[in-house]
Write a structure and sequence with these properties.
By secondary structure, the chain is of the alpha+beta class. About 20% of the residues lie in helices and about 10% in strands. It has 13 helices and eight strands.
Length: about 325
């Protein structure tokens, strides 16, 4: 008798537990789009057995997220949503069956001016579907403007043919973009100052970016000697398109006054003296820099080298100026 009572109560407990188990809807949240809602009720109406999914497809002890690319290969929801058992996760027309609502605009935080991507303007009436960009499409995170100009990410369509080019229409994506005056540290001389405001009056962003410059200050460093060869600023500042980079230093290095130089030997004894003040009264910076002297000192020359026309000897040859073989005291002042 007792055994029957125990068996009855055990069966009743199992039934109560079965009734108390309620499968809830599961929400998968996304940062820039409405959540995907999975309904247990809808799926259990077609598949009575929980084991159809658990744990054959979903292991509750090992929770993990699956990408759409993985689902299209048969994992997760894609095990059934393959176009045979149920609508396919790979079908463009069926995206909205799970992803309901409208994706929000995406803002990419950029110090110079945030870039805003509008899903509405790209999808509605434009002929593009979700898969035009997502999954096998071109969209990738962390892509530079230089890479976009080569056809990656947004640049796959924003190439000047399908849509406006990413190379010269900064304000179309970067709302409120304000160009700044840039200062380049140039010790020991004054900082070089570059005014965007002045240059954009005559040129487009694409004239310099990214052919000559990345969209990051200092990403490519060029010496004055490089500029004299047509690199960096020297591509325009060549004496034809604009004043030469080898000309008036003060036009970029505002307030610059070159210092007079004192040359010492390893013992600290003064062995030479050069006056910029005296020489710039008669010559331009470019007469010496960088044909004869690189900016920054360069290689030390001996008196024998100078006597052969190198360094100071290029001018101090007894014709253009007094010879380096002449009066030593004219340069070698007493310390």
């Amino acid at each position: 008798m007792n055994r029957r009572i125990i068996t009855f109560f055990a069966a009743a407990m199992v039934m109560l537990m079965a009734v108390s188990v309620q499968a809830k809807d599961i929400r998968f949240s996304f940062k820039n789009a409405p959540a995907v809602v999975f309904s247990h009720d809808t799926h259990l109406a077609k598949n009575k057995d929980c084991k159809t999914c658990h744990s054959a497809i979903f292991n509750l002890s090992k929770k993990r997220s699956y990408s759409m690319a993985e689902m299209e290969k048969g994992l997760s929801c894609g095990a059934c949503h393959n176009g045979k058992k149920a609508f396919s996760v790979a079908a463009e027309k069926d995206c909205s069956k799970c992803h309901r609502g409208t994706p929000s605009a995406i803002t990419y935080r950029i110090p110079a001016g945030n870039a805003v991507f509008s899903h509405d303007s790209h999808v509605n009436g434009k002929g593009f579907g979700c898969k035009s960009c997502h999954k096998g499409g071109p969209i990738r995170h962390g892509v530079s403007m230089a890479e976009m100009e080569k056809g990656k990410s947004c640049g796959a369509c924003h190439n000047g043919k399908t849509a406006f080019t990413a190379a010269a229409n900064c304000g179309s994506c970067h709302r409120g973009l304000a160009t700044k005056t840039l200062k380049f540290k140039s010790k020991p001389v004054n900082d070089a100052v570059f005014s965007h405001d002045f240059h954009v009056q005559a040129y487009k962003c694409g004239d310099c970016h990214t052919k000559q410059y990345d969209y990051r200050q200092g990403s490519r460093k060029a010496s004055m000697a490089d500029m004299a060869k047509g690199k960096s600023c020297g591509s325009c500042h060549d004496g034809k398109t604009a004043f030469a980079s080898t000309g008036d230093c003060n036009k970029c290095h505002v307030g610059y006054k070159p210092a007079n130089l004192t040359f010492k030997n390893s013992r600290g004894t003064v062995i030479g003296y050069f006056s910029h003040d005296f020489h710039t009264a008669a010559y331009k910076c470019s007469d010496c820099h960088t044909k004869t002297f690189p900016y920054g000192g360069g290689k030390r020359m001996t008196m024998a080298d100078m006597a052969q026309g190198k360094s100071c000897g290029a001018c101090h040859d007894g014709k253009t100026a007094f010879s380096v073989k002449g009066d030593c005291a004219k340069c070698h002042k007493k310390s």
